Amino acid sequence: MPSKEFDSLPNIYLVGPMGAGKTTVGRHLAELLGREFLDSDHEIERRTGATIPWIFEKEGELGFRGRETNVLDDLTSRHHLVLATGGGAVTQAANRNYLKTRGVVIYLFTPVELQLQRTYRDKNRPLLQVENPEQRLRDLLNTRDPLYREVAHHIIETNQGAARDLAQQILRVILTPQLH
To answer: Which parts of the sequence bind Mg(2+) (predicted)?
Structure first.
């Protein structure tokens, strides 16, 4: 049941690299707020009836990004939502615009070493099916970190506690009036 206390808060969008904990933290945050939680990658799979790796294989990254943009346009048009985005969502200018202008964006910054620990066995991540996943994660972070920072209203470091603690930290940051 939605909490009246948080009705006036905008949507909350979590961005960051794979392995940042966007889905796990997002679920806790939605629970704290009494809001619906969605994961854009899961929503793409639900709508297409296909897995992300299959979409990448059949349509390439460009085909996947087009689907992702359509889903993000739809999801960011909803209200009272906590949304976890895919790690590469910020690579498209339209997605950055939807996120930045339609809610509060939280960048879950995660060091490569932690990303590697959290993703090394996950075969559902097409971009990591390479000979050197650590180097791929470093390259992706070098490319995407400026985009995450550009779109983010707040940055939270994920090596500072459990998912539930991070969700509470995000809520505190969002509820604290900004000093200008």
So the answer is: 23
